[in-house]
């Protein structure tokens, strides 16, 4: 089939008239043109880059219904609400869909007015549902969060494995799969498991330049988090915790300090969990202290920070979780706290887990990548992007580039630590080696005779915790690695031997080996030239409308739109139409009250 150039013209027009956007984001137009040509597509694009538009726009400009497979009810609900606010006929079919809504869906399908139907994978795989849907012209099957189909991915969902059967049952319907995180093995897995035809694969830059990246060794995690939160008063954000108990304790502590903080984990009563999620979505300035159970269904664009009270489980999980900040493209902050206990716990979980050896090897490698990112003395963004196969220079916008991480000459410390590894034949790990170097006599050291080693006590000027920091940095710099054939043994690499012989310099991060010496650099997200009082008034109006409609505030207008209104101060509907995010439907629905607030502010 030859491409229809008129479809792209319609798509560009709809981008402005429906969404209120003046131009496509990088990468969108090229992928859309391929989708509109009828090809199958796998698109890997970072969070906030506009993946949803790839499957939302085609049914607006061409015939046929688009089925959207989405893993979470909350995600479906929010996307449907946003589409309806834009004047697009959309609905969701899942276990929470009320009978009246199901009847409206049936009517929309029969009359051909329904453009997008979000559906849970479990429901779509039912024979009666497939047989029913086959009676309507389906133009596309879109699969959101496509990495869920891959056992190599970080969020595997077995129900996704049967989606290829659905494609076949719908007679090879065009298939579009999108995800924010998929390395090369995961992409290959997605292509093999979801598609009946070979898809065209697009992998866009993983860079999120609006995110400030920072990592710190744990000293007093609660105090460190509170200090960072002081930079984000009145802003919404997520703090990820490793345990359910920790989410509740931290939320209670922050509430006692006057913050609107709520816990979220899978063990909470369903009603409490849903209420806390809704509060986060609908309120400004709400902090959720959560386990990883909270996240995939969150489509809130104005999350201004994502903090980790404990180290994430892998490099992919870290990228996915920080990606929930700054989806509107405005500056957002990230901070990850980590400790040796986090690292060893995760290693133990992998080793003692029931996964096949090959999967354990992959998980261990991804954990090693994350430790490297935590301990690196290089630009965070440069290091992170390199792990996804993308080259870049120093970003100038992370804690390392900003000078918050002080580097010192670490060659002598490295030589002492490497010597300790060699003198113990690599059979002992960081805690034991740190005690040897610091000269701390323990039962294990006496039992193995390690108090007789020449290296015992050569680093009495540092604590065992400091030496553990040195050893972790040696590991992150690949001066020591775990033996591929014997994971219970450390080996010194050739690069490590060069440092040991004094042939190569080595720099240490002071904050890792001497935690707590330096307070985190203050960083405040500024709203640019926007009038703060006017912005507050616009947010108040948005909040009142959203509360009346029982919707999240960003469904009415995202922060970026209000910031632009407060900066440009449009005086007419025509002026307001030029503001980012103000399409035709929202202009006529909300234009007058927002213009009234702007006029009243000008008179004041």
From TrEMBL:
Gene3D superfamilies: HRDC domain (1.10.150.80), P-loop containing nucleotide triphosphate hydrolases (3.40.50.300), Winged helix-like DNA-binding domain superfamily/Winged helix DNA-binding domain (1.10.10.10). Residues 528-604 form the HRDC domain. GO terms for cellular component: bacterial nucleoid; cytoplasm; replisome. InterPro entries: DEAD/DEAH_box_helicase_dom, DNA_helicase_ATP-dep_RecQ, DNA_helicase_ATP-dep_RecQ_bac, Helicase_ATP-bd, Helicase_C-like, HRDC-like_sf, HRDC_dom, HRDC_dom_sf. One of its GO terms (biological process) is DNA recombination. Its EC number is 5.6.2.4. Its cofactor is Mg(2+); Zn(2+). Keywords: ATP-binding, DNA damage, DNA recombination, DNA repair, DNA-binding, Helicase, Hydrolase, Isomerase, Metal-binding, Nucleotide-binding, Zinc. It catalyses: Couples ATP hydrolysis with the unwinding of duplex DNA by translocating in the 3'-5' direction. Residues 32-200 form the Helicase ATP-binding domain. SUPFAM superfamilies: HRDC-like (SSF47819), P-loop containing nucleoside triphosphate hydrolases (SSF52540), Winged helix' DNA-binding domain (SSF46785). It comes from the Bacteria. One of its GO terms (molecular function) is hydrolase activity. Residues 221-370 form the Helicase C-terminal domain. Belongs to the helicase family. RecQ subfamily. This is DNA helicase RecQ.
